Amino acid sequence: MTTQDKKRLIDRRRFGTGLAALLASGALAGPAFAADEVATLPYKALIANALTFLNVAVGERDRLALIQSLRPDNGNLVVRPLVITILSKNGRIDVPVGADNSFAIPITDELRDENPTVFTNQPKGSLSLQVGVRVLLPQATRYSYSEFWLGIEQANRMTKRFAGMMRWLFAEAADSLVLRFSRPERQMLRIAAEDGPLTLIADDSGTIFIRIDKKLVDQNPMMELSEPALDALPAISSR
Fold this sequence. Notes:
The protein is of the alpha+beta class.
């Protein structure tokens, strides 16, 4: 496969089960804007997916980490960086926000009972809530193929839980992983398949795209990486 072919293959993949697993039922109600002009959401609405995740038995989600993020509908934030603030009766609570607009909202009984309004610094109607999972991998350079497909199995089951009554919208399950690494240098994955080793090289974005192979699931070969992967995002390949 040529470099051009490889890039074309990666460009066709759809990230339907990872970061973009589920859009919330509505956009958040979005310099300085007046209080009634910024994107807001009730606290309970913002933690609903996190509670769905946490209410699953640990053994059924131990290979996963929850990802929640706020996506600007036009692709760009009006004000950078994104700021999320809980205005509780006990004071202001700043919610940690990542560079990718992912956030980790605190969950307490007091806040659940109060259900305060959560404010952002973005215009009303300009944000959508996304929820998904990432697959946690061993922080090692050698482990078996089962780490990939067992993680995908958990991710697909969790996505159906997030979807709830709308699970028919997510009938197409993830069949691939996108490995992410901490260093920008090109990384490598070698799979010791029975009919000969397979070597995958990271693309220009520093990620490795892996479509799960049923034959390798049965073989469960050992794998070696040039460095431990940070994590893996479930993906749906184009066939």
